[in-house]
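Please decode residue identities from the backbone states below.
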């Protein structure tokens, strides 16, 4: 693995974010164009989905968001780079995860402003080619944004809807080169976890299955609507168990990118997998329809087990496929807590 490539890629993304976040709204399109190639593709949370070209992403996402949220600051909790296992370690990707913070002064996506501080939890995967950004997957947590604005899009969360911190170890900003051996350990552990949990057929009780790759006091930082939970026992009860009980006919895992650096790693798919909603979930009735799960997962390894996991699931996209347009229903009806 060429450490020089990774460091250059990190520098590119870090500098890009500094310029983007500090730009006037009228400058955003030009800044994106200067850092991306002509075939740039951006994949985002519903209702943005897939957007092509720097002008389109500036006009459809960044300008409206920056108009709504003033005095923007980016609070980065995890920052790393790596080669993509999915294409046999050929492409270089940079991950940035944290919160976009500012004052919610104007409406966004039909959500009424609070004129108070607000957090948009986000995670980005950026593919770098020839010194430019060729592709971005930027997932965020619009339901959590809505909750902060006094809406209640998913009132039946089994875990906690909270502002989520970065790693408990406070060491997620990997500005310096990391020991490649540590990244290999993290990637190997992630793959072992995918092999265990992605099949749902280990033959072990759920908690024992989890113990193969997870610390006993693991923290699962799940998306708002499902929520965050701690320890294997509570994760099994508050997410993994209910999720498995609700879904059947899960497809194989299908990632676009999977990488690790040091003790951190992650992956995303478009979608990661599909499954049939065979029983009630999150307060919604079974539809018996197949739905897509667009997911970003970020992990922290502690020794030989996974200790923390930050998850971004496009729940608005999933439920819209099932016939429930949560964003439109909540914002149109003004359904406040």
């Amino acid at each position: 693995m060429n450490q020089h490539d990774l460091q250059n890629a990190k520098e590119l993304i870090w500098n890009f974010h500094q310029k983007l976040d500090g730009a006037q709204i009228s400058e955003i399109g030009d800044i994106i164009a200067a850092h991306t190639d002509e075939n740039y593709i951006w994949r985002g949370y519903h209702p943005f989905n897939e957007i092509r070209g720097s002008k389109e992403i500036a006009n459809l996402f960044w300008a409206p968001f920056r108009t709504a949220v003033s005095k923007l600051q980016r609070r980065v909790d995890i920052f790393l780079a790596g080669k993509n296992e999915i294409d046999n370690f050929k492409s270089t990707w940079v991950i940035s995860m944290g919160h976009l913070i500012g004052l919610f002064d104007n409406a966004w996506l039909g959500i009424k402003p609070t004129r108070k501080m607000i957090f948009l939890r986000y995670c980005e995967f950026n593919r770098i080619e020839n010194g430019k950004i060729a592709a971005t997957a930027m997932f965020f947590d619009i339901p959590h944004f809505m909750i902060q604005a006094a809406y209640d899009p998913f009132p039946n969360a089994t875990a906690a809807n909270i502002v989520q911190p970065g790693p408990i170890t406070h060491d997620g900003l990997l500005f310096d080169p990391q020991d490649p051996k540590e990244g290999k350990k993290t990637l190997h552990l992630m793959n072992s976890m995918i092999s265990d949990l992605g099949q749902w057929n280990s033959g072990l009780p759920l908690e024992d299955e989890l113990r193969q790759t997870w610390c006993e006091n693991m923290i699962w930082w799940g998306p708002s609507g499902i929520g965050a939970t701690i320890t294997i026992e509570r994760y099994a009860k508050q997410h993994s168990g209910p999720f498995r009980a609700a879904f059947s006919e899960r497809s194989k895992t299908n990632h676009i990118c999977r990488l690790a650096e040091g003790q951190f790693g992650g992956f995303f798919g478009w979608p990661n997998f599909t499954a049939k909603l065979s029983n009630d979930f999150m307060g919604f009735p079974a539809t018996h329809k197949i739905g897509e799960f667009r997911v970003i997962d970020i992990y922290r390894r502690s020794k030989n087990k996974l200790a923390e996991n930050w998850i971004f699931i496009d729940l608005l996209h999933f439920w819209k496929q099932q016939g429930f347009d949560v964003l439109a229903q909540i914002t149109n009806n003004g359904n406040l807590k």
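Observation: Residues 3-148 form a domain with the Nuclear Transport Factor 2; Chain: A, fold (CATH 3.10.450.50).
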